[in-house]
Amino acid sequence: MASLYTHARSHHQPQRLVWMMVFGLLIVLCMAAFPWTLSKMFTEEDGNRARWWGIAALASVTVGVAARLAIFGQSGRVRCPLCQGELFRAQRCRKHANARKYFLMSYNASMLVDLFTRGAFLCKYCGTPYSLAKSFRKQRAKARRY
User: Fold this and answer.
1) In what order do the strands lie in the sheet with 120-122?
2) For residue 79, what is the DSSP state?
3) Cβ-contact 33, 53 below 8 angstroms
4) Integer Cα distance of 135 and 121 in angstroms
5) Burial group, residue 69, by CB count within 10 angstroms (0-12, 13-18, 19+)
6) Per-residue pLDDT tens for 14-54?
7) If you average pLDDT over every residue of the chain, what do you get?
């Protein structure tokens, strides 16, 4: 079976996809850091060090919420060039048959996992494959022409 990504198109705004990847990674890291720093705060016997672990826990929550707000603010701006669907906006409409959804994950989280692991993703509305590598190569070629 041939891969769905062999004939992937280039996305017209790969920078926005990269920023969504960075914010998504920040959210995951903050979700992992919060329980760890909270447990360190409660198990620390030195009061001064426990206070710093508490500040670190609060900082991880703050950064996680800020990254989530950034994704929410940018989600309407990242669109599929073909169908004009908003890629990171959660909508209850019908998804394409080839849309990927991993176990216990949403379509958006599955799209971020595909971007991190493959450097490509499928539009969840029209099923068109897009590649980040092809997008950046295309932009470099345009820059060399001018």
Assistant:
1) 9-10, 129-131, 120-122
2) B
3) no
4) 12
5) exposed
6) 888 889 899 999 999 999 999 999 999 999 888 889 999 99
7) 85
Within the chain, strands assigned E span: 9-10, 120-122, 129-131
Nearest 5°: the CA angle 131, 110, 114 is 30
What pTM value is reported for the model?
0.77
Is the pLDDT score of 1 beyond 50?
A: no
Q: Which residue has the tokens 């991190």?
A: 116
The tokens describing 72, both together, are 């929410």
DSSP per-residue codes, 89-128: S---SPPPTT----TT--HHHHHHHHHHHHSEEE-TTT--
pLDDT at 58: 96
Phi, psi angle pair for 13, to nearest 5°: -135, 75
Count of residues for the chain?
Answer: 146
Phi, psi of 131 (to 5 degrees): -125, 135
Amino acid type, 45: E
pLDDT digits (tens, 9 = 90+) for 49-107: 999 999 999 999 999 999 999 989 888 888 888 888 888 777 778 888 878 888 888 88
